[in-house]
Amino acid sequence: MAEKTTMIGPSTLKVICRDRAVVSCARALEDPTQIQLLALSHTRSTSRSPMASIVTKGKPAQQLSSLLPPLVFGCAVFNSQYNDVNKLDTVGLVQEALEFGIRAFDTSPYYGPSEELLGAALDTEFVRSHVPRSDLFYITKCGRIAGDEFDYSPEWVRQSVARSLQRLRTDYLDIVYCHDVEFVSEDEVIGAIKELRRIRDEEGTLRYIGISGYPVPLLCSLAERVLRETGEPLDAVMSYANFTLQNTTLATNGIARLRAAGVDVVPNASPLGMGLLRRAGPPVAGQGDWHPAGPGVRAAVRRASDFCDRHGERLEVIAIRYALESWLTQGASVGSRGDPASGVPWTRESNQQVGGQKLGVSVMGVSNAGELEKTMSVWRSILDGLEGGEETVKLAGRWKRDHEWSQNRKHGVQIMADGIQEHLAEYLDFAWDSPGKDYVNKRAAKNLTAPEAEDAPWLTPAQSPQADQDLPEEISIALR
């Protein structure tokens, strides 16, 4: 095989390859993103085998809540629709995340090239040498193919899982969600859950199973039905935009029902409400103004943002810290005891640097090293303010009064949150329709079967908004 080198970093991708098949194919596609992924897939034949792992069949002996880290790296940003992947240093970003102690990564086939890029970033010499596969959590999804195409059939579920294993370069997936369950019938969801469990029990290529989506009542009713009809609860239910400054119904209306349905872990995603809770408003990019929030709630958010400006704060800063900090405690009963990435050496046997308690799980995405560093600064400041935070501060070598500072900051954030929620008025806890009234599953209408189905298109998920490109980097992520 001819020698070739693939460079993936912040500068323009350079592919030095004497294998003309790869180059000519990429040129034919005339897509720089496809060039990168072709090069990545082509180098697999010469890369080392994936990290050693143990494939086990059947339901895991340990509950997910005893293992999953409370901070999950959201990889929807690894997407050509709102990031130039030729300039996105996914390998460097994932390595830095690992150095910070992050061990869980959430992706989806629906997030364009995200699975491919994450798989390549986790299949490097650094990762193989420093992070055992057993310490990592590969989290992905199945069922959603495009904005208006879903396939929950057993055939497609099998095909999707097999493809994710290949793209992520792993022998097993730690968690697989049925993606955006509100867009299909409950019967289809139940069928997909049963197929995922069959794969778990007979093939051992996945371990924990859950559902994801937006409407809290539907997520709860589905979790209840799964338990009632199968006798086994879901391992996880991931909700997005339902525990934010604008909407806290995941806590007020969701936790009790999900716990009663036996759900082990409930991760909270999208603390900015899909980009709604920003001074600039929801992002508008290649997909146009896709955000489902209507003019009334947008106007209320603008008033809340003006309130923050008058008090020397930014809406984004308050929104991110409020959601991360509040969910740690309010979501603790459906949280986890995994590595919190506190900056202190951690073992599953102790977890003492955060008081030994479960912590609510949050999913947070970043696009560059600067955003990652700021996010981790905020996250660790929040951990410093928890019970046992004085010891965390000491062991991590941070300022001796960081525990006190964090608690004072929490008090200040709560005061601002109260004011913001007053300005939201009748739109506090407002939820938009998902799906919209005119939604039609085009895949069902076309009656496609799995063997005939095309590969997942490269589309940006509406659930994962565009990065804050209209803001300077230094203020795009909460600093406090």
How would you describe this structure to a colleague?
The chain has 480 residues and is an alpha/beta fold. It has 15 helices and twelve strands. The strands form three sheets. An eight-stranded parallel β-barrel has the order 3-4-5-8-9-10-11-12, surrounded by four helices. Strands 1-2 form a two-stranded antiparallel ribbon. A two-stranded antiparallel sheet has the order 6-7. β8, α7 and β9 form a beta-alpha-beta unit. α7 packs across α8. The longest helix is centred in the C-terminal third of the chain and has 23 residues. It is globular and about 55 Å long. It starts with a strand and ends in a 34-residue tail after the last helix. The relative contact order is 0.13. The N terminus and C terminus are likely disordered. It comes from Aureobasidium pullulans (Black yeast). GO terms for molecular function: D-arabinose 1-dehydrogenase [NAD(P)+] activity. It holds the Pfam family Aldo_ket_red.
Mean pLDDT: 84
What percentage of the residues does DSSP assign to strands (E)?
A: 5-15%
As residue ranges, the low-confidence spans are: 1-51, 451-480
Helix count, per DSSP? 15
Helix and strand succession? EEHHEHEHHEEEHEHEHEHEHHEHHHH
Termini separation: 51 Å
What characterizes the major β-sheet?
A: 8 strands, parallel, barrel
Molecular shape: globular
Bin the helical content.
25-40%
| Class from secondary-structure proportions | alpha/beta
How many beta-strand segments?
12
What oligomeric assembly is this protein in?
A: single chain
Radius of gyration: 22 Å
Order of strands, widest sheet: 3-4-5-8-9-10-11-12
